[in-house]
Amino acid sequence: MPDPKLSAHLQLRLLGSPSQSINGNEVTQFRSAKTQALLYYLAVTGENHRRTSLSALFWPNVSETKANASLRVALNSLRKVIADHLIVDRHTVTLDDNLVWVDTQQFTRLLQEMDDATLTMQQRQAAVSLYVGDFLEGFHVDDAPDFDHWVTSMREYFQQAMNHALMELARWHVTHRDQAASLAALSRLLALAPGNEAGHRLMMQVLTHTGQRTAAILQFDTLRRYLVEELGIDPEPETMALYAQLLEGNSVDPKSGVSVTTVPSAQFPPGLGSMRAIQTDWGDMPGRTPFHGRIHQLTEIINRLVR
Questions:
Q1: What value does the CA radius of gyration of the chain take, rounded to a whole number of Å?
Q2: According to the model, what pLDDT value does residue 12 have?
Q3: pTM for the complete prediction?
Q4: Residue 158, C-beta contacts closer than 8 angstroms, at least 6 positions apart
Q5: What is the model's pLDDT at position 91?
Q6: Which of 90, 248, 249, 298 stands the most exposed, by the fewest C-beta atoms within 10 Å?
Q7: What is the 3-state secondary structure (H, E, C) of the chain?
């Protein structure tokens, strides 16, 4: 949450439908969507941008002269709204980061790894509470494809960071025997990422451990339908093996194989100017390919084994 001492400062909430306020009063009188987008871009990147770069970013389909003129109009309009927070000279534009609070920056700061594991998880919990929706949810500007691409990249970054944090919290709660809290974190994770098999597996384990074996089997069915209908693939072998255990009535310990591994702090830099989406290099490893029918055959075999 914003520091109460910063109540006179500009506060931007960009996780979810964007909003902005000064002294607790919502700011809405933007001249255009691009003026609003310019504010968001400056705030999230936290960098000193050249005016020519901003002109090209937001007005790529007109001449340089017209683009520069449009930027001047946008900056003049923005000055009327946030005069004390905008720093402009002949060549560059930036925001005074001492006078601006942005939830995206707070989100990434809270995901930094601490020396104390308990404190780390407390900060993870604070971070996920800031995530009320996807980055700039419902916000769009016309005729600025590079800006749209930037928004998409940032949205994917924050989504993945959120998913990591929720999975870590779920595992942490399992190791501390708080199954209800673990299920709450997993429910939120799977609402955001319904194809997250690791999350589904952990939920199946926790449900079984709390005496809800039928619910765990239904959880598998929910995952299977999603994977087949939305992605055209079958569950991973590890998921199928867990499903077989459930059908056989074997005990399942959610703590087995669970380790609370925090995301390295390098993936969550304090400033987002140089932020890159979290990526995994799989090299030449082949991807999972559809093999329709296998899932039904495996299920039939498992059913016969347990009769």
A1: 24
A2: 96
A3: 0.80
A4: 15, 104, 107, 131, 134, 135
A5: 95
A6: 90
A7: CCCHHHCCCEEEECECCCEEEECCEECCCCCCHHHHHHHHHHHHHCCCEEHHHHHHHHCCCCCHHHHHHHHHHHHHHHHHHHHHHEEECCCEEEECCCCEEEHHHHHHHHCCCCCCHHHHHHHHHHHHHHCCCCECCCCCCCCCHHHHHHHHHHHHHHHHHHHHHHHHHHHHHHHCCCHHHHHHHHHHHHHHCCCCHHHHHHHHHHHHHCCCHHHHHHHHHHHHHHHHHHHCCCCCHHHHHHHHHHHHCCCCCCCCCCCCCCCCHHHCCCCCCCCCCCCCCCCCCCCCCCCCCHHHHHHHHHHHHCC
CB–CB of 295/235 below 8 Å? yes
Instruction: Name residue 261's amino acid.
Output: T
Crossing angle for the helix pair 33-45 and 64-82, to the nearest 10 degrees:
80
Among residues 69, 74, 98, 72, the alpha carbon closest in space to that of 85 is found at 98
For the ranges 4-18, 145-159, 239-253, the lowest mean pLDDT is seen at 4-18
- The pLDDT, as a whole number, for residue 23 is 80
